[in-house]
Amino acid sequence: MNFPEIEQVAPALAKRIKKHVTGAKRAFRAICHLGFETTTAREFEKLGLAESVQISPGAIDFEAKLEDAWKLLAFSRTSTRIIMRIAEFEATNFGKLTKKAAEIPWELYFPWGKIPEIRVTCRKSRLYHTDAVAERLASVLENALLSEALPRSQEASQEHPQKQTLFAHFESDRCILSVDLTGEALYKRGFERHVEDAPLRDTLAGAILFEAGLTETHTLIDPMAGSGTFSSEAMLLKAGAHLWKTRHFACEAQPAYRPAAWNYLTSHAKPIALKEDLQVETSDISTQAFATIEYNLKAKGAAPYIRGFESSLSLSRQDFFALPPAKEGSLLALNPPYGKRLDADVPRLYKEIGNKIRKDFSGAKIAIMVPSDDAEKALALRARKVIRTSHGGLNVKVLFI
Does the model's pTM come out above 0.85? Predict the structure, then answer.
């Protein structure tokens, strides 16, 4: 795709950026929630990523143009970070590391005068001291990015206070260097909100809803809403409040960033659509939780981004077990209280939930988080799919029924 361009970098540097960064396919890695890798891959496909992907635990790897990665940043609800691979080489000692790192044209990836944060991980490598590796890389970056002779990146990008990060991963003496395109993790949706104990991360909520079939749903029922994350994700999607409208990204402060190209891409891309008649029914029995939900969905939080769509959202303080039978085309999303959120008999609670679902939600799609085998057994529902993941430091399952 050809984008309109307004070049604001030195011509020679702009030409190199176009040749080596924006004009060529690059290798990328998207970080996602463990167990939801194929979910994220399907979401990327629906967002127009035509390249094949390779799946590994908690991540998917793919090759694409930089603008494709920008599109995923702008619209993905299930990934938590996207990074671009810039170099891979063998480094069995610090001399080799320094030599190879010094050969990288850092000015193509980071703005002049700003040294990125360096995050290092080492596994089965002779270079295992992460702080020492970071010190060597920082020295190379300082020599490269603080040089007065270096062509300056576009001045507009310098105004963005986005943190720049270089990831260095060592695996069996192979060093892989990657530039972060994201900035704050993508579960940071760009607005402040109140939260209850052990709040569900927005990206995990997005992955659960996408896997459960939100795009084909007419009524989303979120009856143990807590902080209202399931409802917030659905309403933001319905309102078209995609991430490029609610937050900034690290890529905006990088030399390859072109505002005209970004604006063209985000305004012409086709995001994932929901049913036009989608209704979101949000409730919780807790007075405190209901106050939190009202703040996050009516007063602050997501509220400014879903204005004009309030008729699609209903909030009520009521007991899940008193809800009426679900309508056809409904999706019940449940994150029952457990762990820090509940000091009670969890299997008994899940038994009651199972009974309620069999009685009043037999025709609905169900997505329910389950903290233990005992709770799953007490639920006594046959799942069409089970995904093992983590939430709040606990290993949990998500049952799709």
Answer: yes
